[in-house]
Amino acid sequence: MEKTLSRSSQQFTDFEDTVRDLLNAVPQPILVKDDRFRLRYVNSAACLLIGKTNDELIGSTDYDFRSKSEADRIRELDEQVLRTGQEITEEQEVLVPEGVGSLVIHHRRVVLATGQRLIMASILDTTAQRQAEADRRESQEQYRALIQLHPQMPWTADPSGKVLEIGPRWKATGFDPADALGAGWAKAIHPADLGNVEKEWSKSLQTGLPLDTEFRLATQEGGYRWFRGRAAARRADDGTILRWYGTVEDIDEERKALEALKESEARFRAIADDAPAMIWVTNATGSNDYHSRLWQETTGQTPEQAVGKGWLSAIHPDDRQKVEAAFSRAFDLRQPIRMEYRLLRPYGSSVWVLDAGQSRFAADGKFVGFVGIAVDITERRNAQQQKLVAQKQVHHMARHDALTGLPNRRYLREEFDLLCKAIAPGTKMALLCLDLDDFRSINDAHGRRAGDQLLSRVADRLRNSLMQSDILCRLGGDEFCVLRVGLNSTDEASSLARQLVAVVGYPFPLAGNPIELPASVGFTTGAAGDMALDALVQAADVALDYAKARGRGACVEYRPDMGLQVRKQQNLKTALRRAVENDELELHYQPLLNLLTGEIPALEALVRWSPRELGPVSPAEFIPVAEEAGLIDVLGEWVLRRACVDARRWPAHIGVAVNLSPLQFRNPRLAATVSDVLNATGLDGARLQLEITESVMLNDCDDNLQRLRELRELGAKIAIDDFGTGYSSLAYLRTFSFDKIKVDRSFISDLPDGRESLAIIRAVAAIGRSLGITTTVEGVEKQSQLDVVRIEGFDEAQGYLISRPLPAQKVLHFIKTNRKTFRAPSPRHTSQ
Q1: Residue 714 confidence (pLDDT)
Q2: How many angstroms separate the Cα of 220 from the Cα of each of 178, 180, 515, 736?
Q3: At CB < 8 A and 24+ separation, what contacts does 733-739 make?
Q4: pLDDT higher than 80, residue 730
Q5: Residue 302 clears pLDDT 80, i.e. is over it
Q6: Contact by Cβ (8 Å): 798, 592
Q7: Average pLDDT, stretch 212-226?
Q8: Residue 653 in 3-state DSSP?
């Protein structure tokens, strides 16, 4: 029996040792107490936590190593566990021996062993877990702070593209950030940019590629600013998109800087193109991306041909390899270069140039390329090598046009003298002057380089269409002349003139589009020995002026009486210039009648000129002179200013109508000039009516439409005058929303009997009603005419029946007392 007990006791002891070893191996502190709250077992982790050994702790209570308040609290919990038998979990911060605070959780529960009730407490250190939670919360706060303080607008979106969150700076658009969620961000984007943004965003969503696009966003102050939107996807391990992260960055200043840079570059190109030397610029790779106009004129290369390494083909073959090697070495070392070589000219000759290049560096020290200048040193080189050659070159350059290679006026004069000495007296000859019609519009629309290219092509066509004995010259600008000697008859000169017009009139290709260059020709004939060259050229020029006055593609032969007319025109120009400078013009005003109320809604300003030495001059005569002499802008501003000053004296409900010349629309400051006049005179823009003819819509339509919109923004009303006389009058009503249509007087003169005119004015009245445009007729001189336009539903009438044009001092009197009384309006005619 004793052996059995001894064996059992030994087994229990072994088991107890095993349990003790197992508990010591547990990394969490474990304490076991009996029902008298004495420690029966403490594992190694608990000893380390409390700071005492196992021997010091076994048999002790919490009062032996804790403060009384802490021991009382633990005793209360132990008693609750023994009493209820339920587990208690408690979270508590304790101090470890080193004085570092820890967050712990105590687990207590009742354990029955060997008939005794024991309390086991396990302690779980959650310091790391709590620190991780604190770190996560801090990270979230830092993220929110970053979003709040980020100079850009961060945003996130789900895989489908719906915006989930956006930075608070979105408020700068005038919209709340909450409004941007989902697809609400689109409301803040400029309508013109929205389509492209949606397209790029859709492409990124479909392909997963990053987004990078620029657009304008609204601002709280009104208007828009440029921004750059970028985004990239965050993906899962399998490649699927989890979320999009992006930013919206304000780049308005950068865009303005870029535009300023472009403007600066344009100024540089303009200056370089007018420089008397060949200027070139390369990028960092050594490819040339700019050559000035003189390079193109010298080599005959187009900008497209010279770009990159194409300029090498303009170098003389014997020099090409040497030049290419020298430039490559200079780029590799980024050192200046200076060398001499020959350039090929379009017609087989060559010129020597001194070329000097300098490396360029950005503000940050980055190499950006070279800039250089090439100067024609042919004369110096030839002087060093062979002086009859230098003279020949100079002789040629002095007598030929650099752009087209054609002889110039000096060459023509010398050859004319030689011919007159060589041919028999009385030999018939013809001199023809050809001028391209409205060539300035080509330069305005396509640029000076394109214009130069076209001039070269015109020269080629003319050269190929003439006989070898003919002398073709470029007199300057877009004017050419042809001298033919040995005519059989005057008809041969007329036939040659028509031939030149036909040759030039065939369309020229320019940037893939056909460009028409109609030409006018004036010519004269004479006999050798009878007329000097200057007289021939002057006569042909006079005839050319007449040809251009007739319209495009005209040919006119000189008559002696034309000289008188030219001198008269010149005298008229001189007198008109003096009249404008000395304020010798005056305005008359012709009233318009409202056909419904009988009131005068406006008066049209008509300029009058009566110089003492010439007598009254019709506007139909001096207005074209002003346009030709370059006075139309000054004259137009004078008329506008005087009309606004006079209108300020009229009742506030009466406006003033002012006619604008089509040539005034070439001035980009037209709207600014009108604005300055309105501000200076104090006239309300709504009282100003500006009348234009259809040629404004025909020439440079895009630019002129912009001018019209700018004038409309000033509050002025826009009327189209002489309606119905042009090619596409109805089309203009769709191009621009006019306020008024003024029917030309030619459709009124044969009323009420003219069936065709009646049909036209009836159609115009119907168009006006349907489009909400005021309709006006000019030239009403009979009561029967007035009755017809009333019946057909016109709004206004103007003509001698109502009033002749009045001097400014009689306008108020007419308005107040002398206005005619017209019969009451008849019921409007209704037509199917």
Answers
A1: 92
A2: 16, 15, 47, 32
A3: 733/767, 733/771, 733/773, 735/697, 735/701, 735/705, 736/697, 736/705, 736/708, 738/773, 739/689, 739/773, 739/774
A4: no
A5: yes
A6: yes
A7: 91
A8: coil
